[in-house]
Amino acid sequence: MKKLLKTWFCLFLCALLVFICITGTAEEQDEKKDWAEQALKAYDVQDYETSLHYFTLLADAGDPNAQYMTAFHYFCGRGTEQDFGKAAAYARMSAEQGIPASQSMLAHIYLYGLGVEQNVAKAVEYSQLAANGGDAKAQFLIGWMYDYGVGVDQDFAKAREYYQLAADQGNAEAQTYLGVLYEDGAGVPQSYEEAAKYYQMAADQGLAYAQAHLAQLYEFGNGVEQSSEMSLKYYQLAADQGDPMGQWGMGKAYQFGVGVDVDYVKAAEYYQLSADQEDPDGLECLGYLYLEGLGVEQSREKAIELYELAAERGSEEAQRQLLILGQ
């Protein structure tokens, strides 16, 4: 990661220097060069207030890369209070000069209505522009839009195409969602082996969602050699990051003694964490513990309440349990 950041700084500095060398008088060029060096030096040591100051000077002078960095500071709240409106304004200046990273940022801003009125059509437009320019985040986003039919007609083949472009650049989210397509056989031939390959790539980067999916493959031996130890490892890694699927997986491990001793109290604790995030599986499994009085005080009423919440979120098992209970 440090090597990548160093490479990025070198490329960024080169881009700034190109802009500086073709604009203004020699005196103005020297001043802007100093601003660029001060901005990057401050950013490198995480002095974001100072880096924002110098990036803004360059941005207001018209440099598109500095406009992106100014937008980035406001978007993330680095060196200043988070301000999506200002982020959008500077990103728009930069995007109009063809910077893919700014177009990608604007796509997210319009998709979620951050500091601007939500506009899915503009999100599609900017994500497509940025994706065409090679931006991995935008490639993932436009792939996700095709995957779920957001602003475009659902098209799993196109989703796979864009996920692949981003995954090949090391984007962990794209690797994970590409794995899901292979696991489900959506837009690609179904293959647990391919799913495991892409989940592993993303899991190695620490993405909790991928770790939880990889844990499931190890749990049932789909695409990998079955291993309760490996399943527990990845469920734990995901759970430690607050992933509800990982928390549910750890709850199952303690409930059934898979890789650990049976401990209904710990099972209930993990299921509760998952349920608190409204995960249907976590809600359903916690409901079962309340129904049977395992690790918690037995309560039919609490069980029914949890089953109802899980059923509302699509849990077929919760719906079945409610029928059994006469609800």
Helix content: over 70%
Q: How much is the average pLDDT?
A: 92
Described by the principal axes of the CA atoms, the overall outline is elongated
Instruction: Assign the structural class, choosing from mainly alpha, mainly beta, alpha/beta, alpha+beta, or little secondary structure.
Output: mainly alpha
Structure annotation, total helices: 18
Q: Give a short account of the largest sheet.
A: none
Q: What are the segments in which pLDDT stays under 50 over at least 5 consecutive residues? A: 1-8
What's the CATH architecture of the domain at 28-133?
A: Alpha Horseshoe
- What Rg do the Cα atoms give? 24 Å
Identify the CATH homologous superfamily of the domain at 28-133: Tetratricopeptide repeat domain
* SSE series: HHHHHHHHHHHHHHHHHH
Query: What is the level 1 CATH name of the domain at 28-133?
Result: Mainly Alpha
Distance between the termini: 54 Å
Beta fraction of the residues? under 5%
Q: Care to count the β-strands?
A: 0
CATH names the topology of the domain at 28-133 as: Serine Threonine Protein Phosphatase 5, Tetratricopeptide repeat
